[in-house]
Design a protein that fits this description.
The complex is a heterodimer of chains A (about 120) and B (about 120). Helix content of chain A is about 0%, strand content about 55%. With about 120 residues, chain A is an all-beta fold. The chains are: A mainly beta (about 120), B mainly beta (about 120).
Chain lengths: ~120, ~120
């Protein structure tokens, strides 16, 4: 089973709203990631969690706030977003952060976010 | 640092014809190579990967890719495409001695199958 589950699949929010994206995996992976993908572009890394601790923040604006409540869950809290933040947000996981044989990153289906 | 080049942004192919999607990479260290597929309005799915060993790797749906170290390439091929292969294909590389966050994607190739 190589499944990463994301909810909601679609989200429309106003610029003053607070919402959250959720991600879950039951593969025992200890590294989890958030990527942002704009239309017709490759995914861009936002955050990396390793063993439930934030390891990497790729200079993401503070209106995006990640949270890792436990080893299976990853949230992305959204507040005061801008229309240019509209994109597909992809969650992913891997055994751990180490690059290595078999340590492949698996992606979820994504959450389509529209900011109005 | 490494980079990935997918020269073809769009590739139209007639159904049942062969296809090759090109991927070249640049890296100062050894790398692992991946092809991910993104079907319309969906997330990324791992199609196949090269980590070590045999340079020819295959997927369950008929795609294959060959790692060519001298040409720094990892082209994706299928001998006969189907309508369901219509998707965006991303080549990606990850340095073998660094963290997974160093996974670098190409700009993608949109494969369109013509009935």
């Amino acid at each position: 089973d190589t499944e990463v589950t994301q909810t909601p699949k679609h989200l429309v929010m106003g610029m003053t709203n607070k919402k959250s994206l959720k991600c879950e995996q039951h593969m025992g992976h200890r590294a989890m990631y958030w990527y942002k993908q704009k239309a017709k572009k490759p995914p861009e890394l936002m955050f990396v969690y390793s063993y439930e601790k934030l390891s990497i923040n790729e200079s993401v604006p503070s209106r995006f706030s990640p949270e890792c409540p436990n080893s299976s869950l990853l949230n992305l809290h959204l507040h005061a977003l801008q229309p240019e933040d509209s994109a597909l947000y992809l969650c992913a996981s891997s055994q751990d952060r180490r690059g290595g044989s078999g340590n492949t990153i698996y992606f979820g289906e994504g959450s389509w976010l529209t900011v109005v | 640092a490494q980079s990935v080049t997918q020269l073809d942004s769009q590739v139209p192919v007639f159904e049942e014809a062969p296809v090759e999607l090109r991927c070249n990479y640049s890296s100062s260290v050894s790398v692992y190579l991946f092809w991910y597929v993104q079907y319309p309005n969906q997330g990324l799915q791992l199609l196949l990967k090269y980590l070590s060993g045999s340079t020819l790797v295959k997927s369950i749906n008929g795609f294959e890719a060959e790692f060519n170290k001298s040409q720094t390439s990892f082209h994706l091929r299928k001998p006969s495409v189907h309508i369901s292969d219509t998707a965006e294909y991303f080549c990606a590389v990850s340095p073998s001695n660094f963290g997974n966050e160093k996974l670098t994607f190409g700009t993608g190739t949109r494969l369109t199958i013509i009935p």
